[in-house]
Structures
1.
Amino acid sequence: MRERMFPRCLVVIDAFGRVQGDKATSIILSALAIFTTRGRLPPLQFLVTSRPVPAVERGFHLTGLIRDTNVLVLHNIPLEISQKDIRIYLTDRLSAIARSFGLGPGLRARQ
């Protein structure tokens, strides 16, 4: 019943590979594994970003989190796709900023 009252949320843990010490990495991943595998956090999803750090990779395997994890290695995405995504994001965000300052659509970025 409580799950229905709590909206779905995304929790972002950015730069996880920079956590100081293998023990801290292990504690965090162990806690995530305990709560996520027992279904205690159904409305929560986690996005963990990290460089390919051995302690993080090992932690995902040892805790069993790897079974419920979708891994996306950014270095495997073709450069033209990444550049297109960045261009779309910047165009959208800069357009929104221009609109918020009342700047007209006639202003264009240099190519």
2.
Amino acid sequence: MGFSGRRVLMAAAALAGAGTLVLGCSSAGPVSVARTASPAQTAPAAQDIVAAPVQVAQTALGTVGYRELGHGPALVMITGYSATMDDWAPYFVDALAARFRVVVFDNAGIGQTAPLTAPLTVPEMAAQASALISALKLGRCDVLGWSMGGMIAQSLAVADPGQVSRLVLAGTQPGTGKAAPVPSAAAAALGSGKPAAVLGVLFPAGQGAAINRYAAAILSYPSYYTASTAVQAQQRAAALRWFAGDDAAGRDVGQIRAPTLVADGTEDALNPVSNDRLLAGLIPGARLVLYPGAGHAFLFQDAGSFVSELDSFLG
């Protein structure tokens, strides 16, 4: 997104902030309601993720563009539908980098990351994430997946359990064929290409301050960009296949043995909370945390609370 695109997004944030107006019951483990409030390279010396350079890893499944920040246990973060690594709010990443070596990257066909053979699937994107973990010699690491990234994270944990220490699934759905679908109006808004509409489904009404903070934060990256329409179409088809239960990894989510945290906002317009409860019930011992009044972007809306939860869960 060039300068004009930045202006459109900021204007959209202002409109959303004024109220005018990415994919995302069995008993589970403990359930709580949160209170609102290439060869491995050394981590860059940057003090924040915005200043961290984009690096390119040579993996078994092509190049993967990534950034990393911080020191300590590795935390790999997988983003969602149509998103790039520049859609991680810097204030969220920087807070985590105080304790972890955070690695963010682009999914297949975005930025410096090589496309994968068509048709694109969630397990293939998981295999590319696994290849990045291997190329960076991260070993057994913690993995956080948001929205479609949570599908990829589930698939990774099923196919390559030796690479996943702890698993965080944010605003995402199981791939058993039994998840509630994304509401049609929310899906249309997300795919509209209109920044105000997209922000309006990521954050609930009345969250103008959170929207403006998020928009300003992601636009602080040096060269904010977006996924192409072709990649978005491929990702949409992959997500629908996952929803339908057509991927074996999605049906085998009950095999996950990594300690798992399932989290979401109670007002998620893209992912009904029933899906969070279903997913937590499928994974043995999973913990479910819900943020009252928060939406699909709860991890940015309630960043302070969620970072504290992650600090506790990841240990």
